[in-house]
Amino acid sequence: MQDIFFRDNFEKLNQLLEQEQCEFTGIPDGFAGQTPDRKLRLIYLMNDCAESFLVLENARMTGCYKSGYEGPLEASVEKQGEGYVLVVHQGESLFTVFFDDVLFECQLYDYGNVGHFWVKKYENLRVMEYQIAILRDKYDYLGEEFCNEQEKELAMLRDFPPLNYLFYPSVPEKYIVPVDNPWEVSGEALDVMSKIAEEAEDRRLLKALHEYRKTGNALMARKIAAIFRRSSHVETVHLLAEKIRQAAEEYPVRDFGSEQNTYLQDLMQKARKKKEENVTDIVTDNVTDAKLIKILNLSENSKKTERMLGIIELIKKDENISVTEMAESLGVTTRTIKRDIGYLKEMKVVKREGTAKSGKWIISIE
Questions:
Q1: Is 359 helix (H, G, I), strand (E, B) or coil?
Q2: Widest Cα–Cα separation across the chain
Q3: What is the 3-state secondary structure (H, E, C) of 216-237?
Q4: pLDDT tens-digit profile of 216-257?
């Protein structure tokens, strides 16, 4: 990890303190005095794609530092003589750090194969939501000079609601860090997604993105979010995932130590095996889409066809799904869903087993 000096290091420090963040690494609870190298490392941005610290040079701490403190925090930095003083209130406790300068240390890592399955269903989309979110943090907090050209484009997808935490959160709700105006789509994000859809020759998605660019409303966001779950758009999803992997692969893989590295390698091997087992399922789904269109006597690119296939896809994922949940997922009214399901029942593609409250949906394609 190399020491790098930036004139905005004090801005980074103030930004951190304004967010009530002040966590040092490598010192115990109640520490006071100086470390052997006379440096104190303050965690700046730490996630799967970057590990960075603000390094206080020739630092000396007085008072009582509470490691792992999570309460209210007040802090300030001031010039004092030839150096600086950092004063931090951790609740009723106080500690002070006298230092000469602030350096910045940063190491970037390959995040293209990370997988966090904190929330079940649509894990491939949730992983991309996580990867895009941490990449955007890297772009925003470290600066675009820490990103390659492909990353600069992909980071814009944080402002693409159909792929953000509104639809595919990678963590439970209580851990979500909200952004301003999460429903607002940016022109840059639409440009990036349209470029990917065009490369994948995904005409339906391109058409939906064109409409989304004109309206920018939540209804279109819901429709596009549903499109990403459809097996007929799997190539577009795979292409985006591959672009994220390619953008990240120029960085080294994080070293967690021999024991943990072995454990992670075993998990990756199991994941690859599971992925190979699922390839047949994906192909079967694609055949089913084509078969359904023929059975239902629908045109290939109509909105009705898209809804019908969307309903089938939702039932495959959850046989207990309600009409209301289907309507919310596909961005239409419950009346529309009930009408579509009536047609699917009439064509003997879907049937209901049990009561309205405790029953389940069954797909019966022969």
A1: coil
A2: 84
A3: CCHHHHHHHHHHCCCHHHHHHH
A4: 999 999 999 999 988 788 889 999 999 999 999 999 988 877
Exposure of 342 by Cβ count < 10 A (0-12 exposed, 13-18 middle, 19+ buried)?
exposed
Candidates 345, 312, 310; CA nearest to 328 is 310
> What's the mean pLDDT when you consider all of the chain?
87
Q: Which of 201, 169, 203, 167 is nearest to 185 (CA)?
A: 167
Distance CA 151, CA 24 (A): 29
Copy the structure tokens of residue 117.
Answer: 């399955």
Kindly report, residue by residue over 40-66, the tens digit of the pLDDT: 999 999 999 999 999 999 999 999 999
Q: In DSSP terms, which residues pair with 56 in a beta bridge?
A: 40, 102
pTM over 0.85? The answer is no
In whole angstroms, what is the distance from residue 197 CA to residue 274 CA? 27
Dihedral pair phi/psi, residue 261, rounded to 5°: -60, -45
